[in-house]
Amino acid sequence: MFDHRQLAAALESVSSVPAEPIAPAADGDALIDGECGIARYGDPRRRIFDAMIETVAQRGYDRTTIERVTGAAQVAAPVFDEHFEDKQDCFLHALDRLIGRVEQILLARVRWPMPWPERIQLGLRALLVELAEHPDSARVALVACLSAGDASVARLRAALARLVAILDEGREYAAEQGSPEIEYLPPQISAAIVGGIAAIVHRQVLEDRTAELPLLLGDLLYFALLPYLGHDEALSASGLQVAAVHARRRAVR
Q: How far apart are the C-alpha atoms of 109 and 127, rounded to whole Å?
């Protein structure tokens, strides 16, 4: 059974990690995992990345070997050695590309010129859908990487810290809306919210319910918006209020 203390360690003090800018992906990069089809790429390095993600997702990091990766990628061992020092070097490069790709998809939504709550909704929806459509990538980024060494965990913490910075923009939005409660919010509130959402998503992936992640959008959005908007506005923005009304109507029928 997976030791959830590893997740706690990854989430610990995510706000203290510098929110470094995200490196742009190479032109034409696809999501790095087995779902996209390993053998379709002519570039052996990309095939190795795909094979690494697929193999780790299926077997776990500890049971993944270079031989299995090169076999899945259909490349010879010397080709692997030409590009990577060892298994961990390859895994970290693949993880960087994977996380970078997911972050770019999310940031493309949260940077749209619209109010902050709507941007958070779009970003969270994009994140949940992306993970649901690529379960191998989700398992590697949120589960397997926690047992792949300190450098791997550090990458997850850094990604979470960048999400904290995005969520913390809610302070400015709330202040502009004249919310009197914003001054009482603790400084770590955004980090706590990101950590809580990450823990919920992690559990979903761990239990092989990744495909159901988009169903959590309303609940997670309410959780994210509540401290900044208050109960009524967060309930409305998350769509939970409408869903509850529809549920009551169905129950009456």
A: 10
In the chain the domains, ranked by start, together with CATH numbers, are 5-252 (1.10.357.10)
**Residue 71 neighbours by CB under 8 Å, 6+ apart:** 51
- Cα 171 from Cα 87, distance rounded (Å): 42
Measured between alpha carbons, how far is 229 from 231 in angstroms, rounded to an integer? 7
Q: Each residue of 15-66: pLDDT tens digit? A: 444 444 444 444 334 444 445 444 445 789 999 999 999 999 999 999 999 9
d(CA 125, CA 41): 29
Q: Please state, in angstroms and rounded to a whole number, the distance separating the CA atoms of residues 15 and 161.
A: 5
Task: Report pTM.
Answer: 0.81
The tokens describing 23, both together, are 């490196």
Q: Which helix (H) or strand (E) holds 99?
A: helix 87-110
The Cα angle at residue 7 between residues 213 and 126, in degrees rounded to 5: 30
